Amino acid sequence: MAMIELRRLRAFVTVVEEGNITRAAERLFIQQPPLTRLLQGLEDELGVTLLQRLPRGVRVTEAGGVLFEEARALLARAERLREAVQRAARGEQGHIAIGFTSSAALHPFVPNLLRRYRDILPGITTQLEEAGSGELMEALLEQRLDAAFVRSPASGIPGLSVEPVLSEPMIVALPLGHRLAQQTQQPLPLAELAHEAFILYRRPAGQGLYDAILAACHRAGFSPRIVQEAPRLPATLSLVGAGLGLSVVPGSMRRLGGDGIVYRTLAEEAQLSAPLYLALRRSPASPIVERFRQLVLETVGAS
């Protein structure tokens, strides 16, 4: 038996609900003869009588009563399916995979944005992944991620577009008891770190911030003495807390606190800030990704 057309089922359900073919035709905005043909076609297809014609209307048969309940449920599911597809086309339902660096996750902007995204679009399931900027870019190109918050502008990577989101000052993380850990209220000139031991995160993981720190040190007249590299920023702070050296980190890293660590702001002439970018693939974005991008821009504008 061929699949029953939804328009025949809809016509049948409307007639049963109205109990009258003329009123059902008016409700369906069709003429009575086409409606009668739809009902006859449905009975012929099923090989049973569904409606008993009465002088002043119609009455459903026992077989028709069973079909009525099943058809009404099927039509409701079909309507939900249609709505789901339309929501997906508007970017309101589906799935998105978002990546972020460990330092980006600590900036209030990112968790607040994700919370707002969930509240505005509860039909979107979100997969989150934390990695270094380089790994996130690779995941974007391989289509394992749809969007990523990174610290590197990634200029020149074919297939990716990167939009600036915000910029925050960088600060110095010092071991407790360090000679520079005393006057915490005074901005620290970067040149004061010329002879200090630096702990940085590995360049492939944090290329943008790594290069920015080196460039700022060179402007201040020295090359930093890097004694240790860590795979992630939290690991960098752990090494600072252990007294192995100091580090320069985004200001939001202060939220991690850390035993044995003192934070100091840098003097303005250091010109050292930590930008945050939204990275996307250049290929035409899905409605879901485009809605996310628009929400990022709106949140930036409102902050």
UniProtKB/TrEMBL annotation:
Q: Which GO terms describe its cellular component?
A: protein-DNA complex
Which terms in the Gene Ontology molecular function aspect does this entry carry?
Answer: DNA binding; DNA-binding transcription factor activity
Keyword vocabulary terms for this entry? DNA-binding, Repressor, Transcription, Transcription regulation
Q: What PROSITE patterns does its record include?
A: HTH_LYSR
Q: Gene3D superfamilies, alphabetically?
A: Periplasmic binding protein-like II, Winged helix-like DNA-binding domain superfamily/Winged helix DNA-binding domain
Superkingdom to which the source organism belongs: Bacteria
Q: Where is the HTH lysR-type domain?
A: 4-61
Q: Which PANTHER family match?
A: SMALL NEUTRAL PROTEASE REGULATORY PROTEIN, TRANSCRIPTIONAL DUAL REGULATOR HCAR-RELATED
Assigned protein family? Belongs to the LysR transcriptional regulatory family.
Q: What is this protein called?
A: LysR substrate-binding domain-containing protein
